[in-house]
Every structure is written in structure tokens, then in C-alpha cells.
Specification:
By secondary structure, the chain is an alpha+beta fold. 37% of the residues lie in helices and 18% in strands. Strand 11 and strand 12 form a beta hairpin. 37% of the residues are buried.
């Protein structure tokens, strides 16, 4: 079949489908706790965890963008009290529904083989000799942190390249499933035996490799709406690109997938895969509400920077590691979504001692006119963010509204 004969999804509908899959087309209402919060996270698949707290940490901002009533304690209850979520890796550190834990056993097995050799090559000498000591200590005395192990070992400068042996062993035992994060103090992880953290109804379940490949690929495409096999593999980062490609070819052969052309914002076409039933829903998808939402730089809708640029024409780069003099925008600049369009980026910081959210700059995207109505919608969102950050005042630098 030639590309020209494939169904074509216009850019506007592709955006809408993508945003709908990411919970950004529905009106942002709901309690943001209990079953409602579980539903949001299940729809997304996972929520990336990040330590930077210029306004609020990434995982909290991701949830608040979809549920303004959400509060930080609600996630803590799911993680630490009810064990509805567990913390581990997808493409990065994330919180994941605990019901998916059995599929992470494939990652544990693969990481065990991969990390031993890699970390030996990085000269983390002696970490393997610490496994037994750490497991016994946790078993006998309860949870530990990286700061509470290896007391007599040389402490690192804080970078992953300079972990002391017990810290390295602790991370290895977590990455390979023998330990699990049971809670955080501040942002420091505490680890306990996995059997004391993960409920047995999930811990006792196992899947073979083919079952996990099928689940990982199928559930990724369900959450992306449309994707290439490479994008499917990258979603959970549980399976290899080759495994995802083999799955896609098999499902295409069975008629369970369809090929389409996705129109990018510049008019170029990109071949992707969809579930056939998704094509029938496109014309009936509701428009996203016109409200403005400030997104985390790690929002799942923006995780794949190349996809965001293709769909929305939004070129985003986080500049944390860029020297200040070379930054185009700022240290930690937040994307701003209005309806189905990314309209700009904003630099702001919660000055908690002063109980003030300070807006330093807003850069509209090219072609975005800051009308009174748009400014009003942005101001409403910034007032919400002020309250969410625990501040009482909202203030703007004199030259905060920049030219596009």
C-alpha cells in the first residue's frame, strides 16, 4: 500500500486525539483524590517524578493541570498508605499504578544483567559486596536511605558518578526489584524490602516475556493515540524497539492495527499506527476547553519533545544545564497551553518566604496575540498557581510580557 492511499489525520484532529489521551481535552474538574486521582494516573500510565521545586514539583504540577482540586497529600496517600502506586523507572523516575508491577519484573531481570557490567565499568568498586549487608540491615531494622548506609565509606559529591559502594548497592537493589521505595522524607527515598511494600496480590503475579511485550505495546498505543513502533517502545521503556516493531508487524498482519498518515503542523506527513477503532472516534472528539493551563516541563504531553514540535510547532528545551549567560529563556520555564494550542512559555518562581509567586517573563509563541481575553485567562491560571504553590500574592516583573 502506498503512502498516498493511507487514511490521513489532519493536524487539528491529531492534536485533539493526543491531548484527549493525555487528559487535557476534558474540563479540568474532579476531586483529585481517591478513585478520581487513580483514574487520572491510570489514563496517563505514569507520572514522572522530579525534584525541582521552583513552583511545585513536576509530579504535582502534572496532576494539578488536570485536577485543580488536587493537593500534594493526595498522592502521598496513594503511594505510602494505600500502596496504589509504586515508584520506579519508565523513561525516567516515575510513579506507576501498582497493578502494573508484575510487568516490571522483566525490567528487573534485564537491569540486573545490564547494570552489573555497566556499573563495574564505571569503577563503582565494591558495591556487589554490600548487597548482603544492606538486605540484612533492612530486614532486621527496617527502611534505610542512602544517607544512612555506608557510614564509614567516603561520601560522594552528590553526583551519580561518585556514589559510595553502599549507595550504589542500594540503588542496584531497587532497580532490580529486591528493594522498593516505601516513602520519601523531603525528597530523599527510603527503601524497604519489596515484599513489605508491594501488596501480595500484585507481588505474586508473574507474566512471561511475550505477555509483557504485548501489554507494554498495547497499553502504550492506547495512551498515545497514534505512534510509530519506536514511540511505542519508548513510552514505558520496558521493551526493546525490535520487540515493539515485531509486535506491531504481527498486529498489523492480524488486522488489529491500521497505518495512517499524521499531518504535522508544517504540513509534512508521518506514518503512524493506530487502533482501527480510534479512527472512528476522531470526528466526535470534544474540543478542549479554552482555558489556559501552565504545564510542567515534564508533563507527559511534552515528554517527547520531537512529537510536541511536530504536532504543535513548539520547540522546547529545558535549560537547567545551560550556562545562565547562554539561556534563551530561563532556568526552568513552564510551557503554557490554551485549549489545543501551546501559546508560550513562562518563567516564574514561588518566593515562599515572601508568600509570593513572582512572574519574571512570559514569551508568547510566534503568531499569538495577547488580547485582553487571553491575558485574563492567563491571569486566572496564574492566580490558581499562586494558591497551589502556597503563596498569597501574585506579582509581575516590570517587563514580564515579552515580544514574540
Amino acid at each position: 500500500m502506498s503512502e498516498s492511499s493511507l487514511p490521513r489525520v489532519p493536524n487539528g484532529l491529531a492534536r485533539r486525539l493526543f491531548l484527549e489521551k493525555h487528559g487535557l481535552c476534558a474540563p479540568p474538574k474532579g476531586s483529585g483524590k481517591g478513585d478520581d486521582l487513580s483514574g487520572v494516573i491510570d489514563q496517563l500510565g505514569f507520572v514522572q517524578v522530579d525534584s525541582i521545586n521552583t513552583v511545585a514539583r513536576a509530579h504535582h504540577m502534572i496532576l494539578a493541570a488536570r485536577r485543580p482540586a488536587y493537593r500534594e497529600k493526595n498522592l502521598k496517600q496513594h503511594l505510602e498508605r494505600d500502596r496504589l502506586l509504586f515508584e520506579h523507572w519508565t523513561h525516567d523516575a516515575s510513579v506507576v499504578p501498582t497493578k502494573f508491577f508484575p510487568h516490571w519484573k522483566l525490567r528487573f531481570e534485564r537491569d540486573r544483567n545490564k547494570l552489573i557490567g555497566r556499573w563495574r565499568n564505571w569503577r563503582r568498586d565494591g558495591f556487589e559486596q554490600k548487597f548482603e549487608d544492606i538486605l540484612k540491615r533492612v530486614s532486621d531494622h527496617g527502611p534505610v536511605t542512602s544517607a544512612s548506609v555506608g557510614e564509614d565509606e567516603k561520601r560522594s559529591s552528590g553526583g551519580w558518578w561518585d556514589w559510595h559502594p553502599s549507595k550504589t548497592a542500594l540503588e542496584f537493589l531497587w532497580r532490580t526489584g529486591e528493594l522498593s521505595v516505601c516513602h520519601r522524607s523531603g525528597f530523599q527515598k527510603a527503601y524497604d524490602l519489596t515484599e513489605r511494600v508491594i501488596p501480595d496480590k500484585h507481588l505474586s503475579v508473574s507474566h512471561d516475556t511475550e505477555e509483557t511485550i504485548d501489554w507494554a505495546a498495547r497499553s502504550a498505543l492506547q495512551r498515545l493515540g497514534f505512534a510509530t513502533s519506536g514511540e511505542i517502545a519508548a513510552f514505558w521503556d520496558l521493551i526493546t524497539p525490535e520487540e515493539a516493531k515485531t509486535w506491531c508487524n504481527a498486529e498489523l498482519g492480524r488486522g488489529n492495527l491500521a497505518e495512517v498518515e499524521i499531518e504535522c503542523v508544517d504540513g509534512k506527513l508521518r506514518k503512524s499506527l493506530v487502533f482501527p477503532e480510534s479512527l472512528g472516534t476522531l470526528e466526535h472528539l470534544p474540543e478542549a476547553p479554552s482555558r489556559v493551563r501552565v504545564l510542567s516541563p515534564f508533563d507527559p504531553a511534552l515528554r517527547d519533545r520531537k512529537r510536541a514540535e511536530r504536532l504543535f510547532g513548539f520547540d522546547y528545551r529545558i535549560e537547567i544545564f545551560v550556562p545562565e549567560a547562554k539561556r534563551k529563556y530561563g532556568y526552568y520555564v513552564f510551557p503554557v497551553l490554551e485549549g489545543e494550542r501551546l501559546i508560550g512559555r513562562i518563567d516564574m518562581k514561588a518566593l515562599r518566604k515572601d508568600e509570593r509567586l513572582q512572574v519574571r517573563a512570559f514569551w508568547p509563541e510566534k503568531g499569538v496575540r495577547m488580547s485582553k481575553g487571553r491575558l485574563d485567562r492567563l491571569n486566572s491560571e496564574l492566580n490558581r498557581m499562586t494558591r497551589f504553590a502556597g503563596c498569597s500574592d501574585l506579582a509581575f516583573d516590570k517587563d514580564w510580557l515579552r515580544a514574540n
